[in-house]
Write a structure and sequence with these properties.
Helix content is 30%, strand content 32%. The chain is α+β, with helices and mostly antiparallel strands and 110 residues long. The N and C termini lie far apart (64 Å).
Length: 110
């Protein structure tokens, strides 16, 4: 089993085995990353990886998963973007019982 050297933000350089590392590649844009659980602090570390790095990791025995971008990214967009003020107003409505009652009455009428 190959030894892999990687870096944890907190602990610095660590040594891992191929079983400790996982590779993920997006089928749509070929962007990849690898992840591992730091053997010292036990935090999960995720790092971007170039195709060459991914090829080396997989060739050494690291398991690879693939994924696709969500279909919602291809949906047409209309209207102006949501602002911070819109989110605050929405939050206020969620905490206001009269807003809930008004929204439900509109749903029942419609």
């Amino acid at each position: 089993m190959a030894t892999i050297r990687a870096s944890c933000e907190t602990c610095g350089d660590v040594e891992l085995t191929t079983a400790d590392v996982r590779v993920r590649v997006c089928i749509d844009n070929n962007k990849g990353e690898y992840s591992f659980r730091c053997p010292i602090c036990h935090m999960t570390v995720v790092k971007p990886a170039e195709p060459r790095t991914i090829d080396l990791l997989v060739a050494s025995g690291v398991a690879m998963d693939t994924w696709t971008l969500p279909a919602e990214l291809d949906e047409p967009r209309s209207g102006k973007p949501i602002t911070h003020d819109d989110l605050l107003e929405f939050h206020d409505h969620l905490n206001d019982n009269s807003s809930w009652e008004e929204a439900i009455s509109h749903l029942l009428e419609g």
